[in-house]
Amino acid sequence: MNRSTRRTVLVAGAANLVVAATKLVAGLISGSSAMLAEAAHSLADTLNQVFLLTSLRQSNRPPDRDHPFGYGQERYFWSLLAAFGIFVAGAGFSVFEGILAMLKPHGHESPLVAYIVLAVSLVAEGISFARAVHQMRGEAADQGREVMDHVRRSPDTTVKAALFEDTAAVIGLVLAAGGLVLTQLTGSSMWDGAASVAVGVLLIVVAYRLGRDSRDMLIGHAADPDEQRLIAEEINRTEGVDDVAELLTMRLGPDHLLIAARASFADDITADRVEEMAEDIDRRVGERLSVKPHVFIDPTRRRPPAQRPGFGSDERVYGHSCSDEDGRATHGDGPGTTLGRRA
Length: 343
Hints:
- By secondary structure, this protein is an alpha+beta fold.
- The chain is built from 9 helices and 6 strands.
- It is elongated, with a radius of gyration of 26 Å.
């Protein structure tokens, strides 16, 4: 996945760099505020591709003493910076330039140059957009999901950022072209300024969505409900497990998932057997979810059937403390020592 994502980011970066230069020249020649706003947009996108490439390199570093689970969450930090860059460098300049154009109308020179650049830019951005969509479709097919559902649920904010930026770029080009056409038809630069503001608003929406997704992942986002049910199923169908009393999950990056489960076992289960079961669960979850799981199992006392919440009943426990037979809250130092393994 990292190789495919890197290719998508490189294609987007190359397209943005070429398009930014041509838009800037065209904007200066034609005097179009919308074209200058689009140039700022493409420059911001180019900088963001640098952030995203950095995130790929940093997140692939192996685990060490200070970061025993690796650096997968670096992806979310750099994606958050990319969202900030879109908001400040892209949206901020676009809105400012648009308002300035509406307050101080000006004439346009050589609009033909702007139209040619828009056409060339649309081809370049279209290629980058097609690449991002192709990757998303492939990932969605692997997960058995619809494309839009996968975009919403995917934990890979790097490829999301590339897709969002390319989508905004294509829409922004259409808006800029519309502003130029209306300006030529009416003779008023108000339309050009309005198109520039519209591009800025579009970038604000993209920055907000990407920033929100990155923030959610940085503060510790659980696996989605379908994935949690799958994990619970794999633990429950393990020989020797009576039920799962509690399941906690947290993403450690697009390709890593922390899984901590409190489960009750048969009375004759041994510590060595629990270790083997954790390894088996780790392997099976990794095969079904296509992530690298880090599984920890905490054995608890067996409960009477009426007191077992489990995952086969309507009382599903996702991330809440359980109680032992005396009604006391049990945590990691409750009955039994935390056993298991980290992959």
